Amino acid sequence: MSAEADKNRVIIFDTTLRDGEQSPGAAMNLEEKLRLAGVLEELGVDVIEAGFPVSSAGDFKAVNEIAKKVRNSTVCGLARAARGDIERAAEAIAPAARKRIHTFLSTSPLHMKYKLQKEPEQVLQAVWDAVTFARNLCDDVEWSAEDGSRSEPDFLCRCVEAAIKAGARTINIPDTVGYTTPDEYGALFKMLAGRVPNADQAIFSVHCHNDLGLGVANSLAGVINGARQVECTINGLGERAGNAALEEVVMALKVRHDRMPFTTGIRTENITRASRLVSQITGFPVQPNKAIVGANAFAHESGVHQDGMIKNRQTYEIMTPESVGLTNSSLKLGKLSGRNAFRTKLRELGYDLGDNALEEAFKRFKDLADRKRDIFDDDLIALVDDEMANAAARIRFVGLEVYAGSKGPQKATLELQIDGKNHTVTSNGNGPVDATFNAIKQLVPHEATLSLYQVHAVTKGTDAQAEVTVRLEESGRTTNGQGADPDTLVASARAYINALTKLLVKREKSTPGDMTLISDSTAAE
């Protein structure tokens, strides 16, 4: 790579697993984090911020396991400007082939006065101490000026200079509360480059929140004015209104290379898969009109638009669906398709299942093909994601019969396999969904409350698969579950069971031995 090309290379720092997971209800378990880390590495993400190791034993383990698994991307652990935080982060990322400690401290007058309750000189010393200590434990250290966009320029320059002198080689200036505008944010980086004596010894980074809907615009303004790392998340996941969306930043740089002559290492054809996985894991659906990955991003309904598309796709598309991983299927599947074709198709979609997982997914595919005339790629993705999410579960869906209608009473007869044994129960409810969930509760007693229930169709048509998301809360613990099936009630049962399984695992971690699943008074084998 030439010096000029290297100068224009933008590092993509993905914080979906850390900042993204801080979205209320978006918590992920260890298995889900490992799956997502693998997909991020395949996507070509340069730095994966895997978590905040000191925050909990679970977060430490997740960062540590990701550090063991990921080989190509740098694995980063977040730490406050405290020795205990930094030591814990260093320990968590130790197995990584490439590792980074990311330490931060607030520098704005508002944060220093009310959050830190420290004088500026104390903060400046803390910056020096934290980066120096981190640099002794890890060669790659990043320092962030929390609320940097609202910091006093003179003091911010002093902190940045100190952090670089102490050994930080990445300097992040976050727009922590999504307050700034593109012209202000771009000018901030130009000012730092011009005023900080050792600025050329570090890479500057942007980290923009989307409170005013300017996260991506601000990130690009930072890059145009000298920043060479963008901190972002898949689907724009994150606290409050979220973070700058990785897919939007990357595709803006790719499509508008004429105005922004910068490159990334992202394999853009993997973007859609990463987006779907994050949506499936967190239970946060992607809005249809979302840029790049929304269901309508490449849809054309207007007659004028359709006519233009027929004549030349470039009339109304500035990028191709294939460039972000939406491909026209070269292999059509139906009820007569065999395992080989099924496996080949899944590999085409980015899935490589083991023999047991493949067999289970193939059985569900055959059942789906018997019930649904046209099998779309999205159908297969929903089916396989659902199967993978439940592969190792102690509770598995077997069958469901429901009596519903205006006369009532609505009731559900449910059969589950629990720890290898089948159990059946019948329960009434205020509607078929309530009856189904009551049946699950009879077989697997719990006090969780249902805080979210949403349904959307995977594809078009009356025979489309339903994809259901369920969120359960119990004693401060929150889990999301997903399920897919042409029958909305079956998808609902699968989603509830998926969420409940995760909740039981969390319950066991907090209260060892508390994993009773069967209610003896109601269950019948």
Molecular structure report:
With about 525 residues, this protein is α/β, with parallel strands linked by helices. The chain has 3 domains: about 5-250, Aldolase class I (TIM Barrel, Alpha-Beta Barrel), CATH 3.20.20; about 330-390; about 395-510, Alpha-isopropylmalate synthase LeuA, regulatory domain (Double Stranded RNA Binding Domain). Helices cover about 40% and strands about 20% of the residues. It has helices at about 5, 30-45, 55-70, 85-95, 110-115, 120-135, 155-165, 180-195, 215-225, 245-255, 270-280, 305-310, 340-350, 355-370, 375-390, 430-445, 490-510; strands at about 10-15, 45-50, 75-80, 100-105, 140-145, 170-175, 205-210, 230, 395-405, 410-420, 420-430, 450-455, 465-475, 475-485. The strands form 3 sheets. It has an 8-stranded parallel beta barrel with strand order 1-2-3-4-5-6-7-8, surrounded by 7 helices. Strands 9-10-11 form a 3-stranded antiparallel sheet. Strands 12-13-14 form a 3-stranded antiparallel sheet. β13 and β14 (about 475-485) form a beta hairpin. The longest helix has 23 residues, at about 490-510. The relative contact order is 0.08.
Quickly describe the structure.
The protein is an alpha/beta fold. The protein has helices spanning 3-7, 30-43, 57-69, 83-93, 109-116, 120-137, 153-166, 182-195, 215-224, 246-255, 271-282, 303-311, 339-348, 355-371, 377-390, 432-443, 488-510; strands at residues 11-14, 47-51, 74-80, 99-106, 141-146, 170-175, 203-208, 229-232, 395-403, 410-418, 421-429, 449-457, 466-474, 477-485.
